[in-house]
Structures are given as structure tokens and as C-alpha cells.
Amino acid sequence: MSKSWEGKDWKVKVLHSSAGVATQILISTLESDLLIDVGDGTLRDLIKLDYDFNHLKAILITHEHFDHIGGLWSLLGFLRMIGRTQELTLITPQSSSEVKNIVSSFIKVYTRTIHFEIVLNELSDRQKMSIDNVGVQAFSVIHRGSTSINGLGKLIPAFGYSISYNKQRVVASGDTGNCQSLRTFAKDADLAIIEATLKQKTVENAEVHLTVKEASDIGKTAKKYFLIHQES
User: Fold this and answer.
1) What CATH code is carried by the domain that includes residue 192?
2) Tell me, what's the pLDDT at 2?
3) Domain total for the chain?
């Protein structure tokens, strides 16, 4: 699966996205690149592109389920191996803990041989920040996990992101139930990347994911949209 978009001097490429496996989205600008999520296989996907890892400036984590952060350790390990020296920024929702634990464990294991700083920024709802000339705004969405044995999980810290560059705007939903914040930010975006995991909505999964119809209805309010995170 490959979905790409080109704006004014920037590009967006969905490297991979399938529910319960992995999601990783690459945003490339003239100055630097950002990843939205870093699921399993991110390193492989970037190497297939003959990617220049020195261009990667930040990783935006939508939430801490394994299919969105499972590739973080291997990517950090590769950056260490190739001798990266420039700072790497990781952005997460406030009150997240798993990325913190991964980063602290990685630093503990390799403390003497890491030559780049890992900066962790925890954002709050609607908070903005800049990465080079890229504007990033986080917005809270509704999301729960579920497993076949344990059933429906608790609400977790989860973000969508609105990314602005060269007077254009790209919105990524993250994993989410149907919520007003996503509808607000998707409206009039140049590109909306919307998760569409469910075929049918039930009471049990209403706050876990969007249906294809819900995602399409939201996506149509943007100038262009992709549906991602669909079941394999």
C-alpha cells in the first residue's frame, strides 16, 4: 500500500499502515523531515527509499499502541550505528509513559555510545510548536485499545496532528473514534489522512476506531484525503 501527496515544496508518503500491525507516515520538506508514528518496519521502509536519515528531525507519536511505536527502538539503534550526531525530537501526548520508558531504556543500554541527543516533548491539547519552518499543532482525539482476550481498554492519551508548511496544511487523525476535534481540524485541510479501521460500528468499538463511512465523510471536508489503518 502506497499513498503519496505533493504540496508546495513538500511531500507526504504513507510508508505503511495496517490495523494492528504498523503505521508510519513520512513528511518531507526542503529543510527537514518528520515521521508521524514509527510502527514496526519503519527502518526497513525508509531504507527501501534510500533515505537520508540526517534529514529526519522529529517523530510525532499519535499514541502508544504497539502498532504505532513498535519500530522506535530499531530506528534509534540504527541512528546510533550510523553515527548520528544531530538532535532528534520525539513528540508525544502528555501523560504518555511508554515512549519515555523506551527512550530511557535505550539510553541506559547504550549510554556511552550514543552521540545524539533525544529530546522528548510532551504536548497538551491544541498546543503548537515549530520544527524548522514546519508548524505542528496537536489535538486530542478519543481512543481506546482492545484485545481479543481482555476486550475494551481504557481511554488513553491520543493525538491527531495538524502540520502546516508553505501556507498548506496536512492533518493526520491518529487512531480515533468519531470526535468533534478531528472534524474541526480536517475541514479545509489540503490533505487529511484518516484512519478507517472498522467495517461496522458497535457500542463496544465506538471509541476505538472509525468506520470507512465515518472516515470518508470527515475526509470529504478536506481538499484531498487518504483512508489508512484498514485491516489487512
Assistant:
1) 3.60.15.10
2) 66
3) 1
